[in-house]
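Letters spell out the chain; backbone shape is given numerically. Both lines appear below:
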Amino acid sequence: MRDFRKRNVWKKAHHFTLQVYRITKNFHSDERFGLTVQLL
């Protein structure tokens, strides 16, 4: 089986995740918690 990190879907999802972390790192903890609840 190929390395999953070479799959385009994984690359796009990983890039998206890093962008979300970058954007939300300065949010207040209650705002981050609210977003987390919505994502789950």
